[in-house]
Structures are given as structure tokens and as C-alpha cells.
Design a protein that fits this description.
Radius of gyration: 24 Å
Distance between the termini: 83 Å
Order of helices and strands: HHHHHHH
Helix content: 55-70%
Largest sheet: none
Number of helices: 7
Structural class: mainly alpha
């Protein structure tokens, strides 16, 4: 019976935060989709307990931050030398959408190499 694994999975999802700035890219959102895929009928769904338990142990390790607690970081600096708030802003879907919009505008306003080659007129 998968009732025990169902309740464990629900408890893990309750601990996992959702980041509204990363709509469509958020790990918490993906985990909720995985949960709905693994348990389409709720706690009565028959699942591969061994596989689900392995996934839940890995997720519990991530949620509890066990690696970070076991091996604490000596410095809060990242290789980009940016703070956490700046990095979160850079990777938000809003900024990514704005950058994609700018790239599309640039494509329209600036012809590419192929278009420029097509526009070359032979001088007689």
C-alpha cells in the first residue's frame, strides 16, 4: 500500500518552498508535478515503493539541508562575486522574459548576416 509513502511525500512538499519569480522553472513546482504524476489517484495509487522511497530520501536530504550542515561553507562568496539577492533577480523569469524580448527586437531591427547577403546588389 502506498499510503505511507504518500503522506511522507506530502510532508516533504509542505517543507519545499515555491519561488513565484521562477514560474515554469521552479524546482518546487516540478516536484509537485512529479507528485501528481506518481499519485494520480491519491493515496490509493499503487507505486513502486522502492523507487519512491529512494526519491523521498534524496528529497528529504535536500529539504533538511543535510549536506550544508555536515560540510559548512567557509565563505558566502560565489564565483560571480554577487550576493544571493542579485543572483535571484538575474535568474527570475521576469528578467529572462525581458532579455528575450530585447533579443527579438534586435533581430527585427538589425538584419542578420544571411539577410545582409541577400540584400547585396551586384554593381554593373
Amino acid at each position: 500500500m502506498s499510503g505511507v509513502s504518500y503522506t511522507k511525500f506530502v510532508k516533504i512538499l509542505e517543507k519545499w518552498p515555491l519561488d513565484p519569480s521562477k514560474k515554469g522553472k521552479d524546482l518546487g513546482e516540478s516536484l509537485r508535478l512529479l507528485f501528481s504524476h506518481n499519485y494520480p489517484l491519491g493515496s490509493t495509487t499503487v507505486v513502486n515503493e522502492k523507487l519512491i522511497n529512494k526519491q523521498m530520501m534524496a528529497l528529504e536530504s535536500l529539504v533538511s539541508n543535510s549536506s550544508s550542515n555536515t560540510f559548512p561553507r567557509l565563505s558566502t562568496t560565489t564565483f560571480t562575486l554577487l550576493d544571493q539577492e542579485t543572483l535571484s533577480g538575474i535568474t527570475s523569469t521576469e528578467l529572462m522574459g525581458q532579455l528575450t524580448g530585447q533579443a527579438e527586437e534586435d533581430k527585427v531591427s538589425k538584419p542578420g548576416i544571411i539577410q545582409r547577403l541577400k540584400n547585396i546588389r551586384l554593381i554593373r
